């Protein structure tokens, strides 16, 4: 399991760029890597817990066997003091049996203890590496988002400065100028199309000043 975890870490650290080039969404890929690593950690935690439980069980069996050895030796002494040599011999035979079992259990316990310590050390290494990759993931996600934004801005700027955009802008400007020219032309045509009656009516219409001027002329006899 730890080798699998190391393989995932290697992919993230040494081959990440190549994978991200092929991925549709680098952020999702990074999150998936972290989920895989977290799952590996949970599996190793389960294995460590089982190994620690096995170590404790073996240690208890070993200490129980040691206590029984001490008990049989004390019983043998007690039997001899009571003058019962046969009972003392049987106690020593059982002591020998349990002493052999105690030595076997001790060896098993020591191996289990070493394995548990090794697994705990590897689990800690995995957690440290996970934290390191988590920080790197955050940095890469920020870089990916910045790159996306920059690409979007560059594309927008490129579109604004492209020949097609300029031509479109100039076409719209020309259209506005044409609208303005058409408006001025329609105004001129309206002025030219005034009827003769309108013009004569304008001539015949006298202002208040003209009427007052005629009255003054009459008074002066002119």
From TrEMBL:
A Pfam family this chain is assigned to: PspA_IM30
Coiled coil: 102-206
Keyword hit for Coiled coil: yes
Keywords, in A-Z order: Coiled coil
The keyword Cell inner membrane appears for this protein: no
InterPro entries, per database record: PspA_VIPP1
PANTHER family: MEMBRANE-ASSOCIATED PROTEIN VIPP1, CHLOROPLASTIC, PHAGE SHOCK PROTEIN A
Family membership noted in the UniProt record: Belongs to the PspA/Vipp/IM30 family.
Protein name: Phage shock protein A
Source organism (scientific name): Pullulanibacillus pueri
Lineage of origin: Bacteria, Bacillati, Bacillota, Bacilli, Bacillales
């Amino acid at each position: 399991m730890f080798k699998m975890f190391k393989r995932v870490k290697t992919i993230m650290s040494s081959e990440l760029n190549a994978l991200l080039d092929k991925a549709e969404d680098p952020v999702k890929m990074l999150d998936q890597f972290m989920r895989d690593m977290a799952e590996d950690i949970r599996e190793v935690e389960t294995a460590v817990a089982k190994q620690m439980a096995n170590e404790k069980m073996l240690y208890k069996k070993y200490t129980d066997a040691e206590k029984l050895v001490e008990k049989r030796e004390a019983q043998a002494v007690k039997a001899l003091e009571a003058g019962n040599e046969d009972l003392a011999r049987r106690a020593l035979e059982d002591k020998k049996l349990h002493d052999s079992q105690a030595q076997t259990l001790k060896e098993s316990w020591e191996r289990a203890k070493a394995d548990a310590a090794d697994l705990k050390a590897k689990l800690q290494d995995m957690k440290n590496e996970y934290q390191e990759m988590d920080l790197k993931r955050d940095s890469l996600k920020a870089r990916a988002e910045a790159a996306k934004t920059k690409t979007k801005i560059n594309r927008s700027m490129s579109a604004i400065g492209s020949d097609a955009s300029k031509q479109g802008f100039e076409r719209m400007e020309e259209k506005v100028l044409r609208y303005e020219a058409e408006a001025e032309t329609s105004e001129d045509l309206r002025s030219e199309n005034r009827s003769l009656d309108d013009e004569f009516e304008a001539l015949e219409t006298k202002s208040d000043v003209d009427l007052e001027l005629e009255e003054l002329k009459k008074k002066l006899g002119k």
